[in-house]
Design a protein that fits this description.
Elements: H1 2-31, E1 35-36, E2 45-50, H2 63-77, E3 81-87, H3 99-107, E4 115-118, H4 124-133, E5 139-144, H5 149-158, E6 162-167, H6 175-194
Helix pairs in contact: 1-5, 1-6, 4-5
């Protein structure tokens, strides 16, 4: 009896691992043709979607975040995109992945009216969902590092976005982040399967209109979550 139980437990575990491998492989394979390296010229799009990453308490962008912002700035300045949507986590007053990036773009000479800020992009799924449903984005270039692009594009395209990925990596390997993508891809598949709705949706801020409302700044950013 015990031997049979162990046998079936091992079989179930093996089946689970095999299923996980299939999901991750499918995410990678199904999105590969939509990914552009740093040397390639991606297709023109309405918006560059800059996914959130850590920002220091003094507002300095982390190396990962700066790579994403710099790549988006080049795409804007070259006319490949006409708008930039910065998305990330600003769920508390003490942590803000969004506003400092917006100010960074302003310092690069990008007009404020072309920069939209999304303070409720708590994860990649929420960022893509909100880009489509809150900001009215249809065609988008997703800006992030190579390890993140397959999952980001898989979510975006499944949610109805005409999405292409642009690799912001500057040669780093990001080994730990690559490993983290395995459970993250499984979670993404689950979120899509159940049709998860992000915690915050609220008022519409179409990128075809004014970005002024999204530039709340400072403590008034919390008003955004009460709409």
């Amino acid at each position: 009896m015990v031997k049979r139980l162990l046998k079936w437990t091992f079989f179930a575990l093996l089946l689970f691992v095999f299923g996980c491998v299939l999901v991750v492989a499918y995410v990678d394979i199904s999105t590969a043709r939509f990914i552009y390296s740093g040397k390639d010229t991606p297709p023109k799009a309405q918006v560059a979607l800059v996914l959130g990453a850590s920002v220091m308490s003094n507002g300095t962008l982390s190396a990962v975040m700066k790579e994403r912002a710099d790549r988006a700035a080049v795409l804007y300045q070259s006319g490949i995109v006409s708008k930039i949507l910065v998305t990330g986590d600003n769920s508390t007053l003490q942590y803000d992945e969004v506003y400092p990036v917006g100010k960074y773009f302003l310092a690069l000479g990008i007009p404020q009216e072309d920069i939209f800020l999304d303070y409720a992009g708590f994860d990649t799924y929420s960022s893509m969902y909100r880009a489509h449903d809150v900001f009215g984005v249809t065609r988008v270039l997703v800006i992030t590092q190579h390890y993140h692009l397959p999952r980001a594009l898989f979510i975006a395209r499944t949610l109805g976005l005409d999405a292409y990925g642009v690799d912001a990596s500057q040669g780093e390997k990001y080994f730990y982040n690559s490993l983290r993508e395995i459970p993250a891809s499984l979670k993404a598949a689950f979120d899509l399967a159940i049709g998860r709705t992000p915690k915050y949706l609220g008022e519409q801020f179409p990128v075809s209109g004014s970005s002024a409302t999204t530039w709340l700044g400072g403590e008034t950013q919390m008003i955004y979550f009460k709409q």
